[in-house]
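Lab manual, section 2.4: Encoding a predicted structure.

Procedure: take the sequence of the chain (229 residues), apply the prediction step described in section 2.3, and record the output as structure tokens. A sample record is shown.
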Amino acid sequence: MKDEDLSWLLWLLQTSDALFPTGAYAHSLGFEESVRLGQVRDEASLLEFLQRQIIPAQRQQELPYLRFAFLAETVEELCVIDGEISAWKLAREAREASAQLGGRRLKALGNISDSPLLKEFEEAIRTGRAAGHHLVVCGLQARVEGMPLTAALMTYFYQSLAAICAAAMKLIRIGQDGCQRVLRAAAMEAKETVEASLGVAREDSGCFNPLLEIASMRHERAFERLFIS
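Recorded output:
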């Protein structure tokens, strides 16, 4: 039996590393205002925030849309999916942050890949046919690099949790060990969350998350901010 082809793994590791220039470090995606509102104060409340606010949205909306982008056959389909993401990101700051992260990722990918599909989607963004949301770019990246869908979903799930934990290091009194304990505990739900997301149909995808939406809207008008979003 031949060894499994793992050539995609190197690119997955490279593009999911903190060294990869997506600018994600500058965004908390609503978490900063959630801390200001007293929703997260310590290790225990950080874990609760991930389990109640982040993971359900991953299962019902974020991961399904990454799958839709991964399976899209044409750039036109990607543009439709991208437009739907714009529609369900109610807070302007969240929409703009998603497009900024997607644009930065796409540009960085273009510097190490010559995929025609990446260039076509970049042109769609340039001509205003798409905003270039991060989810769409991640799905497209997985497709052009030959990643297994499950690996792409697991990676996005982990990065979403890790981004909140990285922001927590700057916003609450929690050390590196505390963040790692929280991340480990929350990531234990990865397999179940990814498997459940695979069963969410396009017409059923969605997650009502007013806490994060309101936090993002408040953050946009905050007197002082550490993060862009």
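Check your result against the sample. The mean pLDDT is 92.
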